[in-house]
UniProtKB/TrEMBL annotation:
<protein>
    <recommendedName>
        <fullName>Glycoside hydrolase family 19 catalytic domain-containing protein</fullName>
    </recommendedName>
</protein>
<dbReference type="InterPro" id="IPR000726">
    <property type="entry name" value="Glyco_hydro_19_cat"/>
</dbReference>
<dbReference type="InterPro" id="IPR023346">
    <property type="entry name" value="Lysozyme-like_dom_sf"/>
</dbReference>
<dbReference type="Pfam" id="PF00182">
    <property type="entry name" value="Glyco_hydro_19"/>
</dbReference>
<feature type="domain" description="Glycoside hydrolase family 19 catalytic">
    <location>
        <begin position="119"/>
        <end position="156"/>
    </location>
</feature>
<keyword id="KW-0732">Signal</keyword>
<feature type="signal peptide">
    <location>
        <begin position="1"/>
        <end position="19"/>
    </location>
</feature>
Length: 265
């Protein structure tokens, strides 16, 4: 694909957003080819606002840090995965300028996980780039990464840990499992919902992939709001997945911007 302006890139994103599953704009087995200097103008145009200089600087610094982690990580082996990681961070931490140390607004006030756990005394509200929440998710992330997150949940706010938790949450399926039936029942022991179920180097369905973060049906929910995935279970259809459309739009934007910044789109 020939080089194009950022307005053209945004137009491409808008057109692509009409189709849930598509072929990524380019093939990037590594993010090392992505130039931050080439990437930043597109990100700044989309995620900065007139007169908000300090907020813009913070946002760009945090996204640059994330891009640096991905460029050094062989596990980020497709532009689709990188785009979905960026999109998840934007959706989850927008109110905190995309910070790896983002803390849930109100620290879970009014929610069960916002109260001290009776066994550990800790509170397991959303922390970090993926907004890790609930004691069982802290436990699983800690086991996968060799971190005492259950005992010290604030470790999730350290940038290195925040990145590792983000990647593990998406690729290992920390937050969610497939539902056992169309009515949404789950014993928490089913197959994990992973980004790789919906994203690869050749195909990407970013809206459905949002179920990695939240597989509960939102809105008016019924058996017809879910669909079966053979051998795995049930997930909401895209219209009933929390912020699926916003995640898709952001992922499509980042995909196009990453390809252009790498000279591949």
């Amino acid at each position: 694909m020939k080089h194009c302006s950022y307005l053209a890139v945004l137009g491409l994103v808008s057109a692509m957003a009409q189709a849930a599953q598509h072929t990524p704009v380019c093939q990037l087995a590594s993010q090392q080819a992505v130039s931050w200097d080439a990437l930043q103008p597109a990100l700044q145009a989309r995620h900065c606002y007139p007169g908000k200089v300090e907020a813009c600087q913070a946002r760009m610094a945090n996204l640059k840090q994330l891009q640096g982690y991905m460029a050094a990580d062989a596990k980020v082996d497709s532009v689709a995965l990188a785009a979905f990681m960026f999109a998840t961070v934007v959706v989850e931490t927008g109110i905190r300028q995309f910070s790896p140390a983002a803390v849930e607004r109100g620290e879970g006030a009014g929610k069960a996980y916002g109260r001290p756990d009776p066994r550990t005394g800790q509170r397991y509200y959303g922390r970090g780039w993926v907004q890790l929440t609930h004691a069982h998710q802290y436990r699983k992330a800690g086991e996968l990464l060799g971190l005492p997150l259950l005992e010290q949940p604030d470790l999730a706010l350290a940038p290195d840990n925040s990145y590792r938790i983000l990647l593990a949450a998406l690729t290992e399926g920390i937050p969610e499992v497939y539902r056992q039936n169309a009515n949404g029942a789950s014993n928490g022991q089913g197959p994990r919902v992973k980004a790789g179920d919906f994203i690869s180097a050749t195909q990407a369905d970013y809206a459905q992939a949002r179920a990695v973060i939240n597989a509960n049906c939102v809105g008016k929910c019924s058996a017809s709001s879910r669909k079966a995935f053979p051998g795995k279970g049930y997930l909401p259809t895209q219209a009933f997945i929390d912020v699926a459309g916003k995640t898709e739009a952001e992922a499509l934007f980042f995909e196009a911007a990453l390809c252009k910044a790498a000279g591949a789109g």
